[in-house]
Fold:
Amino acid sequence: MHSTMMIFVLTCLSFNLALSHHQPAAVLASLKERVTVNQTESDVYCYGENGWPRTEENSNAERACGGSTQTRFCSFGGVWAAPTPCQCPGADSWPTTVAGDTALKQCFDGAEVMSRWCDSAGIWHPPTNVCHCYGENGWATAEQDTTSTQECPVGTTGQRTRYCTYAGQWGNESNNCA
Structure:
């Protein structure tokens, strides 16, 4: 029996027995016969709902949310508290982001900004606004995460390649010119 309910029952029984003019020892003996206390397990729960499991009062429940975990506390009396927010986990230099929010990340050049939406289920959506590696030293402007290829200089054969990183920064040139 829940402790608050047990106190209420004990108070009522004690009041009724006192009214019938029993002696204190007789009242205590009568209460011991009528009340059984279970001190090892609560019988008050928060009921399972919307993917949350049935949870004993004064304890936490967890559920998966996208790539993370949400926690919710079942408080005294079997009442659910508000859950921790669902989140998209940080990855590829994107910060951990609360579901429903948009994360921003600055490109290498400092002038461009990418954005990425974390939906209500904690799932990342593809970034919008891509970073660019701007043309330099004969290389044309390229989008992030791509490899640009050029022919080797006149009089040689093969190809030159250069990678534009996810953040919009040119990597070193490699070639097989001969």
Summary: DSSP finds two helices and 14 strands in the chain. Confidence is low (pLDDT under 50) at residues 1-22, 27-40. Residues 22 and 133 are 92 Å apart (CA to CA). The longest helix spans residues 3-19.
